[in-house]
Design a protein that fits this description.
The protein has 33 helices and 2 strands. The chain is globular and about 90 Å long. It has 540 residues and is an all-alpha fold. Strands 1-2 form a two-stranded antiparallel ribbon.
Length: 540
């Protein structure tokens, strides 16, 4: 009897396992395509939704039956608002994978596309008994302003406030105080009742004067954690005297006093000054003592204050910002100092921007566009934002290092039309966002797209964008159709009619196996593109 070697047995078992697994949804698309000769449509469609090729998605939604599972996974993976709206209109389930919870807790702007979707169960609760409305103010990394906006929209679309959502425990704190204040007051205004001591309720509502009045009768019933919450809210919404009175009654220190990022978003200048003095933090900047000559950096104690300055800028707190500047405070470092300029730019307020820009320039020198440009994110063009952009042009900035996929199409168009330096990276940023107005300006500027860049654009750009590039004189690579499985049918039809090679030459790998030319039909079939296979038949 012939003995089967262990090595052969291992290969046989592995092969059988791969073939069996190819039918399982959990297997990667690349392995599945290799074994079965075809990619899973759900994974492919989800990939298209992530790319954001709106024209391609519209073609499939209009001409083919897209399975519910593909619509759902596509919605979950979509990066662009317009794609999410298309999928919801086509019947994608907004409750899939608890997207609302995830978006609310993680400060994801995608929530604004699904919050009013038909069929959304906006009040469903998770295993901890939290709804999305309850989760939005609980992530310490959430921006309180955005959490506030998210909650307002959820309330407008039927979200219900319930008392348990205000339970503040140490494992999942209520970390957006302005949002919590709004929700607590609204709950009471609508006739809701809390089963908490009055002092705690007043603190949640930001009514610190009433909290002081009721604290004597409640102090023995309050847990240590609730006392800390009350003290914390007193620093945010109360006066110095009210805060001192509560500390005296509780006979305790507020362990969160030094979180200046949190404090400066809501407190008064008087409270900030008191907290700084109480903790002996460096408010008067002294380079001789506050910079370690060995590392040429600020001491940790100064950094805790400087991080509050950055928060004040991000929230547009001009009063707090002026206080910091009058006392010589700078943002933490060279990098974060220029990040603060970006925060000021994104405020859209020209006067506020100039106040911060001039101060940072005075303290650090001329800002480097490469440092602050990566997160430049203006969303609209108005009189104030025009002044900001025009000022930066006058200062000599080229906007070459700005991430255009962080901008709106209108802002990108304005920048390009006013002489921004166009690059391959900018073309790709705009293509990935399907920004047609700014793309048109970029092409009209005379920028010549290379054949290689044209091929890279196919999974994102629409056919009219591709046509602009061809009309501008860009030639096509021989392999352009080989890369066309993620492009819209309209784009492939355009490329063929413009003379794209229907028999792409073999690449190096194919030549090793003696393949004379690349078979487009077989390749398109692997990627679920039967529509392109039929299109090719028209040109045989």
């Amino acid at each position: 009897m012939k003995i089967i070697s262990k090595k052969f047995l291992l290969v046989l078992v592995t092969a059988l396992y791969v073939v069996f697994s190819a039918s399982c949804t959990g297997l990667g698309a690349e392995v599945k395509r290799m074994v079965t000769g075809k990619e899973d449509f759900g994974q492919t469609f989800s990939h298209w939704c992530f790319n954001g090729n709106i024209e391609l998605i519209e073609e499939f939604l209009e001409n083919q039956k897209v399975p519910q599972s593909a619509l759902n996974s596509g919605l979950y993976n979509a990066r662009h608002s317009e794609v999410r709206k298309l999928l919801l209109d086509a019947g994608a389930d907004p409750n899939y994978k608890d997207m609302l919870y995830e978006y609310a807790y993680n400060d994801n702007p995608a929530i604004f596309d699904i919050v009013d979707a038909e069929g959304l169960d906006i009040n469903r609760r998770d295993r901890l008994n939290f709804s999305a409305l309850a989760l939005a103010p609980r992530n310490v990394y959430n921006n309180d302003k955005r959490a506030y906006h998210m909650c307002e929209l959820m309330l407008e679309n039927g979200a219900e406030i319930y008392p348990e959502m205000f339970e503040d425990d140490e494992s999942l704190d209520l970390d957006c105080p302005q949002t919590v204040k709004m929700l607590a007051n609204r709950y009471i205004d609508e006739g809701g009742k809390f089963d908490y001591p009055d002092t705690y309720v007043y603190a949640l509502c930001g009514n610190i004067s009433e909290a002081v009045k009721s604290v004597e009768k409640d102090k023995d019933t309050l847990s240590e954690h609730k006392k800390y919450v009350i003290l914390d809210n007193a620093t945010l919404f109360g006066t110095v005297e009210e805060y001192k009175k509560l500390k005296e009654i509780f006979d305790m220190e507020d362990y969160r006093q030094k979180q200046y990022e949190r404090l400066t978003a809501s407190c008064s200048v008087e409270m900030l000054e008191y907290i700084l003095e109480e903790n002996g933090d460096h408010i008067k900047f002294n380079p001789e003592t506050d910079i370690d000559p060995k590392f040429n950096d600020l001491t940790f104690k100064y950094e805790t204050v400087a991080s509050g300055f950055e928060t004040a800028i991000s929230y547009g707190r001009q009063d707090i910002c002026k206080y910091y500047m009058e006392n010589g405070i700078k943002p933490e470092s060279y990098l974060t100092g220029f990040y603060s300029i970006t925060l000021a730019i994104n405020s859209g307020d020209y006067e506020f921007f100039r106040m911060i820009y001039d101060y940072i320039k005075e303290k650090y020198g001329n800002p480097d566009e490469e440092v602050f440009g990566w997160c430049f994110g203006l969303s609209e063009v108005n009189d104030s934002t025009k002044k900001i952009m025009d000022f930066l042009f006058d200062e000599g900035y080229t906007f070459e290092n700005v991430k255009y996929n962080h901008l709106s199409d209108d802002v990108a168009e304005y920048i390009i039309s006013h002489g921004a330096t166009v690059t391959d990276k900018i073309i790709m940023d705009i293509s990935e966002q399907v920004y047609k107005k700014s793309f048109k300006k970029a092409i009209e500027s005379g920028y010549k797209v290379s054949p290689e860049l044209l091929t890279r654009m196919l999974p994102y750009a629409s056919s009219d964008m591709i046509e602009m590039v061809l009309d501008n004189g860009t030639e096509m690579e021989d392999i352009i159709l080989e890369r066309g499985y993620d492009a819209s049918k309209a784009t492939i039809k355009l490329l063929i009619e413009r003379g794209a090679n229907l028999k792409p030459p073999p690449d190096k790998h194919q030549e090793e196996y003696g393949i004379e030319y690349f078979n487009l039909k077989n390749e398109y079939k692997k990627y679920c593109r039967d529509d392109l296979v039929e299109l090719l038949k028209e040109y045989e």
